[in-house]
Amino acid sequence: MALKTLSLVKAGDEGTKLHLNLKKGETFSVELFWESKHDLDAHALLATNNGDRAKVSGFEQVLSTYVFKRKVGGKIVGEFDRNSDGSFQTLCGSLRHSGDALTGKPDNVDEMITIDGSKIGESVNEIPIFVTIHPPGRVKFAEVAKAGIRIKNDQGVVLAEYQLSKQFGQSDAVQMGSLVLGANGWEFAEVGVGFNGDFNTILESFS
């Protein structure tokens, strides 16, 4: 599968859809890679789209480095326990994050989200995928090299691979796309929408 450059989508435009040859209950992964001393994070939502837009209603539907339990100012915040290897997962177990990588290394898988389709609830038909820079507001994608994602099946075969174009240089968060469950299995719908702000800014668009 050739590496594809993800371009900024203009208002009113729709990105292309790619059928992934993945059935509803299959297990597959989304890998985040980048080259930079800066901290990028991969996020995913267990969303429902009834024809208007994808929506979530609670933190149990959010997989993010901001949602696992940790101490902030002496208080425990977050929804999910972190495993001994640094990984964490949604309560239903359908989304699992490999753990927070603080820098991006050349030719490396820096963070990975594993999707277990057999554990996804019946109402979930879309999984938006985001890449953000931490902390927000200090660094833009112009300072990050070769940021992108690749989707693999459970045999490790690359089904799709996308790298951000320079058009996202002034953004610090991007919705790369959405995994959409259709009649014939999973598709990847390119989105290419840039954001600026913290993760709550993104969540507001899906609530």
What features would you describe in this structure?
With 207 residues, the protein is mostly beta strands. It has one domain: Lipoxygenase-1, CATH 2.60.60.30. 3% of the residues lie in helices and 45% in strands. It has one helix at residues 199-204; strands at residues 4-6, 17-22, 27-35, 39-45, 48-49, 54-55, 62-63, 70-72, 75-77, 88-89, 95-97, 111-116, 126-134, 145-153, 158-164, 173-182, 185-195. The strands form four sheets. A seven-stranded mixed sheet has the order 1-15-14-3-12-11-10, with no helix packed on it. A hairpin with a 5-residue loop joins strand 10 (88-89) and strand 11. The termini are far apart.
- Distance N to C terminus: 34 Å
Q: What value does the average pLDDT take?
A: 89
Shape: globular
What letter string, H or E per element, gives the SSE order? EEEEEEEEEEEEEEEEEH
Query: What would you give as the CATH superfamily?
Result: sav2460 like domains
Order of the strands making up the biggest sheet: 1-15-14-3-12-11-10
Report the count of strand segments: 17
| CATH class assignment | Mainly Beta
* Quaternary structure state of the chains depicted: single chain
The third-level CATH topology is: Lipoxygenase-1
- How many discrete domains? 1
Q: Detail the poorly predicted runs.
A: none
CATH architecture: Sandwich
What would you call the structural class? mainly beta
Number of helices: 1
Beta fraction: over 45%
Rg, rounded, reads 16 Å
Largest sheet: 7 strands, mixed
